Amino acid sequence: MEVMIDYCIVLTTAGSGEEAERIAAAMVGARLAACVNIVSPITSFYRWKDAVQKEQEWLLLIKTRATLFEDICGRIRELHSYELPECIQIPIANGGADYLNWIAENSKAKNEKR
Fold it and tell me: How many domains does the structure of the chain reveal?
């Protein structure tokens, strides 16, 4: 099995459907991602400021190139209402060639040809 490190899924959560949609639209609009899926609602349990929290959140699955990870995290920080938004990269180990090519064509750095 060939391991592909060129592509990844970036995870983040949002506190509302509207915020999730705003972040998703910004990612795709800026070509930082080829696709963003919003999974909702989810229930998250986490520790924050020494207390266990329980919140309803919307999970974003951002499909992109691994080289865009830092740009994506920076944009999430700009757009997000959370003090510390999640930004986690999961490498795509393998996938259909046509689908991965589609991700490549639709997620490009600013200095790349469109």
Answer: 1
Listed residue (74, 58, 59, 62) closest to 103, CA to CA: 62
Residue 92 belongs to a domain with what CATH number?
Answer: 3.30.70.120
Task: Determine the pLDDT at residue 82.
Answer: 96
The pLDDT score that the predictor gives to residue 3 is: 47
Condensed to tens digits (0 to 9), the pLDDT of residues 42-100 reads 999 999 999 999 999 999 999 999 999 999 999 999 999 999 999 999 999 999 999 99
CA 110 – CA 113 distance, rounded (Å) = 8
111 within some domain: no
Give a yes or no: residue 2 inside a domain: no
